[in-house]
Amino acid sequence: MAEMASMVSVFAPAWCSKFLSYLTGWVTVISWQAALASSAFLGGTMIQGLLVLNYEGYQFERWHGTLLFYAIIGFSLFINTYLARLLPKIEAMVLVIHVVGFVCILIPLVYLAPHSSAKEVFTTFSNGGDWSTDGLSFFVGLSTSMFAFIGSSFALRDHISFQGLTG
């Protein structure tokens, strides 16, 4: 956050650089909080989607997703507060699970999935959401899949660009 605020003060006119730097800092804090809430809510609704998919008798209610959101936030707070000394081991375990899971899912998908020609893969668009245009459908789908990458590389890119400006 300090790098962003200092970059604003470098580029902004002198008469408003302090105010814009202050504003940038607070907008960054608010966006971090919104990203945390968004990822927890997405996790809760994904769990709810799995319940709908696997249990025919499950009645979908919107407040269930909110309750799962609070459960994920509480679980995250518990781990970061009381199990902080174990966090590196937990993260290493999650990394191993992700890598093994990636391989275990990728191999059957590549082997068993129906194969298409490169022309069909890269030139055929499906507008399954009945959006007004294929382009709008593409970008709606793109924003959903890119949610996982929000902010993951910005800190490094911001730091490198700032170091390039200051010497």
Report on this model:
The protein is mostly helical and 167 residues long. It has seven helices and no strands. Helix 1 (2-11) crosses helix 2 (17-54) and helix 2 (17-54) packs across helix 3 (62-82). The two termini are 20 Å apart.
Query: What is the number of E strands?
Result: 0
Residue runs with pLDDT of under 50 for 5 or more positions: 155-163
Number of helices: 7
Mean pLDDT: 83
Q: Note the overall shape.
A: extended
Strand content: under 5%
Compressed to H and E, one letter per element, the order equals: HHHHHHH
* Gap from first CA to last CA: 20 Å
Helix content: over 70%
Radius of gyration: 22 Å
Structural class: mainly alpha
Largest sheet: none
Q: What structural keywords apply?
A:
167 residues, 7 helices
Short description:
The protein is mainly α and 167 residues long.
Chart the SSEs and their pairings.
Blueprint: H1 2-11, H2 17-54, H3 62-82, H4 87-112, H5 118-123, H6 134-145, H7 154-166
